[in-house]
Design brief:
One of its GO terms (molecular function) is monooxygenase activity. By secondary structure, the protein is of the alpha+beta class. The chain is 28% helix and 26% strand.
């Protein structure tokens, strides 16, 4: 085998996955058909959960001009996301090319092999591995690995070659987007309904504005048609009465409301993540964000699998956990599209939804859905409110003195057992997993919102930041350790006061 894992696609999902796999000890080769990074802004932000994920790897601080905002929306209806633990809707002001630049630098630091200018033209799952055929500037080559992951976007070659089913609904409308300068455009941050459509504008760096134009009644697009700035400016003027024809665009594109999801995220030795697995209307920055979360869910599981440390069925939990999340994103983006893009026929529905959003419980539910903060997995543990939920960042006072934060403990992408149990029993139990799980002794574990005052003496956090077990009440710790980290190997003394392990 040439490498442990082949990744096809060097967008945010592929680069995030590559870094995660390297942290888990796997060798990774990424093939990308583009010869250089894209300088298109595309997404200009990401959700609160994606921000947490980046923070848990020490990456959020690498992004310049990242603006955390509490204000978000559901289908154009404003919502204050400050009611959630984490207290924000997400991050704005980060064009996708800047995120890709940061993630590429991180992945290369970790030792990822990134090969640009290589296009996948064939693949074969041989049962004990995958052979990929790529065409590059130096000709045709075959490469093999135990696993291959398609992170190659909505028109995924991997998905087609591997024969994944991709059911869903076709596009019914086309929307334009562009980064424009040299003209006067006022901000319309969450979109503005106008007669016969919707327009959005948001300031970017260097005097540019991102604009989106959705004109009702536009036919499904010809995928081979090249959109021009004149197309965008004409549509903008038809909807707003304002001319931006005197400006210029550094990037013009279009998107649709096509909605599709593969029926399985894994077929044998081939897996999919990000837009290769699901496409939907861009709403609330969820597309890029869900792809990054796919990568973080998959990375540690696949790395453990290729290292021979994964328990039976661990890799299957990738589909089991992420497919329902993707399906829910497709539902909520379709609902948002109906609210925001259907014109006068849905005005009564918008009025009712506006009333409902004023109810705190409804706003909290929709905020959790769009931000990704309410994702919960079935980890097979009951009796405590934390298992299955994400472990929000909190400051901890270490038993041996000093302080740290939960996000910092997760930088190496290892499991973490945080324990305030004076008996030392959880630490002794976890000693056999010290090659995969760090033990951190603290004075106490602060309760978070939604835990109803439940005491937490110990908590086992998976590398992706989700809680696998908590005490008291969630059953035997050893059972949870075996379920997620395999069998114990040896019994060295547990780590007790080190805030984090160094990334490998």
């Amino acid at each position: 085998m040439d490498t442990d894992v082949i990744i096809v696609g060097a967008g945010p999902t592929g680069l995030m996955l590559a870094g995660e796999l390297r942290l888990g000890g796997a060798d990774v080769t990424v093939f990308e058909r583009r010869t250089e990074r894209s300088w298109e802004s595309r997404g200009i932000g990401f959700t609160a959960r994606a921000a947490e994920v980046l923070d848990q790897r020490g990456l959020l601080g690498r992004l310049e001009n990242a603006e955390i905002t509490r204000q978000g929306h559901f289908g154009g209806i404003p919502i204050d996301f400050g009611m959630l633990e984490g207290s924000h809707f997400g991050v704005r002001g980060v064009p996708q090319y800047k995120l890709e630049e940061m993630l590429e630098g991180w992945a290369l630091e970790l030792g990822v092999s990134l090969r640009r200018g290589y296009e996948l033209t064939g693949l074969e799952d041989t049962g004990d591995g995958v052979t990929a055929v790529v065409q590059g500037p130096d000709g045709r080559h075959e490469h093999s690995a135990p696993y291959l992951v398609g992170c190659d976007g909505g028109r995924s070659t991997v998905r087609d070659l591997a024969g994944f089913d991709f059911p869903g609904s076709d596009a019914t409308r086309e929307m334009y987007l562009a980064d424009v300068t040299g003209c006067d455009i006022r901000p319309r941050m969450i979109g503005e309904l106008v007669p016969n459509g919707m327009v959005m504008s948001a300031p970017l760096e260097q005097g540019y504005h991102r604009i989106i134009v959705c004109e009702n009644g536009t036919p499904p697009p010809d995928r081979n048609r090249q959109v021009t700035f004149t197309d965008v400016a004409d549509a903008w003027q038809r909807l707003t009465g304002e001319s931006i024809h005197g400006g210029r665009a550094r990037w013009v594109s279009s998107f649709t409301d096509a909605t599709r999801q593969v029926t399985e995220y894994r077929r044998g030795r081939v897996l999919l993540a990000g837009d290769a697995a699901h496409i939907h209307l861009p709403a609330g920055g969820q597309g890029l964000s869900v792809g990054v979360q796919d990568a973080v869910n998959l990375g540690w599981k696949l790395a453990a699998t290729v290292r021979g440390q994964a328990p039976d069925g661990l890799l299957d939990t990738y589909h089991g956990e992420r497919h329902p999340v993707g399906a829910r994103v497709l539902r909520n983006t379709r609902a948002q599209g109906t609210l925001n893009l259907s014109g006068k026929p849905v005005e009564p529905l918008r009025a009712v939804m506006t009333e409902l959003v004023a109810i705190p419980a409804v706003a909290r539910h929709l905020s959790g859905m769009v931000s990704g903060l309410d994702v919960r997995y079935d980890v097979g543990q009951e009796g405590h409110p934390l298992p299955g939920a994400r472990m929000a960042d909190r400051e901890l006072e270490l038993a041996g003195g000093g302080r740290t934060r939960i996000a910092r403990l997760l930088h190496p992408a290892r499991g973490v057992l945080i324990t305030a149990d004076d008996s030392g029993e959880p630490a002794r139990c976890a000693a056999g997993w010290s090659d995969r799980v760090d033990v951190i002794r603290v004075r106490s574990i602060p309760a978070g919102p939604g835990e109803d005052g439940a005491a937490t003496e110990s908590v086992l956090v998976r590398p992706d930041g989700y809680v696998a077990w908590a005490a008291p009440g969630a059953g035997p710790l050893a059972e949870a350790l075996r379920r997620w980290f395999g069998e114990a190997r040896g019994f060295p003394e547990p780590r007790d006061s080190q805030p984090m392990a160094s990334a490998r």
